[in-house]
Each structure stands twice: as C-alpha cells, then as structure tokens.
Design brief:
This protein has an eight-stranded parallel β-sheet, with helices on both faces. Strands 7-10 form a two-stranded parallel ribbon. Strands 8-13 form a two-stranded parallel ribbon. The protein is an alpha/beta fold. The longest helix has 18 residues. Helix content is 38%, strand content 16%. It has a domain of 210 residues: Rossmann fold. Strand 5, helix 5 and strand 6 form a beta-alpha-beta unit. Bound molecules: NADP nicotinamide-adenine-dinucleotide phosphate. NADP nicotinamide-adenine-dinucleotide phosphate binds next to helix 1.
Length: 321
C-alpha cells in the first residue's frame, strides 16, 4: 500500500482527495495545524486504518522531516488568498515551505511530489499572491525536477469558498459589484475533476511537470454570477464598480479577519484565468474534466433557494404529511 503525505489535506481539495485516495487503497497521512478542529472531518473520509492525522505547523521542520521517513509520495495543498500576521504570509506559505517539502522529497527519495499552484500566475505579475506561487514553483523544480505542478483555475464544489459565498451574498444583497465590467474569463473546474487528475498522475506514475487544470467551459465573471442567480431563482442588479471604489472597499475588507476580497485579489481579477497554450493541460495528459458548472452547482444550490430543501424536485408537487 503506497503511503501519501498530504499537507493542507483538510481543505476543499484535501477532503475530496483523501476520499479518492483511500478508496483506491492508498494510505494517507494528513498534516493539519489543528487536529481538534479538523480531525473529525478527515477521519470519516476513509475506512479505519487508512488515515493518520498529525498536528504540525509549517515551521516544525524536525516533526515534518520524521514523516518523510515512511512516505512514498508527498502532496502539498497548502495555500492562502490573503496574508495574516505571524508568519502566515505569501512568501512562507507559497514559496519557502513548498521548497522545504521539495528538498525533503528529494532527500528521502520519494517517488513523486505534487504541488498545487494556480492558473494565470505568470500573467499577473503585479499580484503578490501570483508572484509567490511562481517563486514557489521555481524553487520546487530546482530541488525536485520531477515534481508535478498543477495549476487549477477556480475550483468549485459544495464545500468551496466561491460558489457558496457568492450564492450567500447574491441572496442577501440587492446588487452585486462587477470588477472590470465582469469581463474576466474563468474556466472553473469541479473539485472532483481536480482530484481525479491528481489520482491519475499518481496511479499512472506520470511526471508531466507543469499542468494547467481547467474545466470544460469558459465563462466571464458576469456569466458566472448570472448562472448562480438563475440557479437560486433570484434577480439582482449587477453593477460595474469603478476600480478606485473597488480598491477602497477592498482596503476596508482587509481590516476583517477573513476579508471577502483584497486589493491583491482585485489585481488578479484583471487577468483572464484560462489556459495559456504554453503548458500541457489536464486533457493533454489524458484526464479531461467531465463535470459541467451548471449541472454540478444545481445539485447543491437548493439551500440558497426560497424554500431550501423543499424547493428540490423531490418535494415540489408533493404534499408533506
Ligand atoms: N480553491 C481554488 O479555487 C483554488 C484555485 C487555484 C489554486 N488553488 C490552490 O489549491 C490548493 C488547495 O486549495 P483549497 O481550495 O483546498 O484550499 P483551502 O480549502 O483553503 O485549504 C488549504 C489548507 O491549507 C492549510 N493552511 C491554510 N493556511 C495555512 C497556514 N498558514 N499554515 C499551514 N497550513 C495552512 C489549511 O489546513 P489546516 O487548517 O488543517 O492546517 C487548509 O485546509 C491551494 O494551494 C490553493 O492555492 C485553489
């Protein structure tokens, strides 16, 4: 049974991946900063004996080093969208820590190191997030040249911070701001399609280097919002927000512990999040995305609709006794 170390395994991609790997006979060790908060969620993702949980921070090198002694594959899913104080900054998370994992993977002769980066980072040269992700990729390939770097477009699922947050906001606000007139293009990929790609790379023992991971459709930001509004059965004003106002509102959000949007994210939104043509895509390596945005969100959007669970076809036209 192959042993896989997963850093960031408690997040959206991580929980889907733990399920996928354990179902296919991989034994996983998930490293989290808070075993009490996240442990119960991960423990039920696989059969008994398939999942180990270890509490460690990215700064505990000795503890992390010990984990590599018994591992075959390392997967890094740790990522942040905004910086916090005390070491949780873009450089530490996206560059320094991944380079440590790449060095350890090399030193302990692991068969693969898979790292989650992000699509469009080489275009967005004015964004701190994008630069730190790019810097991390370079360091990883320096220390572990056979590493697989996956660059996903925006990832969605019933446990995301994207469609779920937007449906909440669209539900509550009478209008919604459009950054850059809502013209930025995205290729949203369903979380299960992304974990299928990771599993495919591991199980087929592929070393495709950098892969751009995209869903089967291209939508503008405005089209995504329109689809979500249609799915939750709401009508809202979508209003273009001039850039200076967008930046002022983002600088106010940045004062919150979990900002809805930051000035750095507004910079990222300027660039289309679509394939560049410079790298292989998930289709090129043989793992095309199979899930379509509208059909997938339809499966979980009902909680944002009038009537909640009773708005689904299961209940419509049926009397509840
Ligand atoms: N979601 C997207 O739309 C998207 C798009 C492009 C790229 N990506 C990349 O894909 C990867 C996985 O994304 P995701 O959506 O699964 O992310 P996520 O749900 O935010 O989870 C990331 C995990 O990282 C860990 N983490 C966060 N801050 C940390 C810190 N300061 N120190 C140590 N660990 C920390 C957390 O684990 P613990 O709390 O358990 O420690 C968390 O479970 C990330 O690298 C992300 O940048 C995601």
């Amino acid at each position: 049974m192959k042993k896989v170390l997963i850093f960031g395994g408690t997040g959206q991609v991580g929980t889907h991946l733990v399920r996928k790997l354990t179902k296919n006979n991989y034994r996983v060790t998930v490293i989290t900063r808070n075993i009490h908060e996240k442990g119960h969620k991960i423990k039920i993702m696989g059969n008994a004996g398939y999942i180990d949980l270890v509490e460690a921070s990215i700064f505990e090198e000795k503890k992390i080093r010990n984990l590599f002694e018994n591992a075959d594959i390392c997967i890094n899913l740790i990522g942040i969208l905004f910086e916090k104080k005390k070491g949780s900054n873009f450089s530490n998370i996206h560059s320094v820590f991944p380079s440590l994992l790449a060095r350890l993977s090399k030193e302990y002769k692991l068969s693969n190191f898979i790292h989650l980066s992000a699509l469009g980072i080489d275009r967005a040269s004015d964004s701190k997030y994008a630069n730190s992700k790019l810097e991390g990729e370079k360091k990883i390939l320096k220390y572990f040249p056979l590493a697989t770097i996956l660059r996903p477009s925006i990832v969605y699922s019933s446990s995301d911070n994207f469609t779920c947050n937007f449906m909440t906001l669209l539900n509550r606000l009478p209008f919604f701001p459009l950054y850059y007139y809502g013209k930025t293009k995205f290729t949203p990929i369903h979380c299960s399609d992304l974990t299928d790609i990771i599993y495919y790379v591991i199980s087929k023992k592929l070393y495709p280097n950098i892969v751009e991971c995209v869903g089967p459709e291209v939508f503008t930001f405005k089209e995504i919002l329109e689809k979500l509004l249609e799915l939750i059965g709401k009508k809202r004003f979508l209003i273009p927000l001039p850039l200076p106002f967008a930046n002022i509102s983002a600088s106010i959000f940045e004062l919150l512990p979990e900002p809805l949007i930051t000035r750095d994210q507004i910079k990222l939104l300027k660039y289309d999040n679509v394939i560049t043509g410079k790298y292989k895509t998930n289709s090129d390596i043989g793992s095309p995305s199979k899930r379509f945005f509208y059909d997938e969100v339809k499966k979980y959007c009902y909680m944002w609709k009038e009537g909640g669970q009773f708005s689904t076809s299961k209940y419509i036209d049926k009397e509840i006794k």
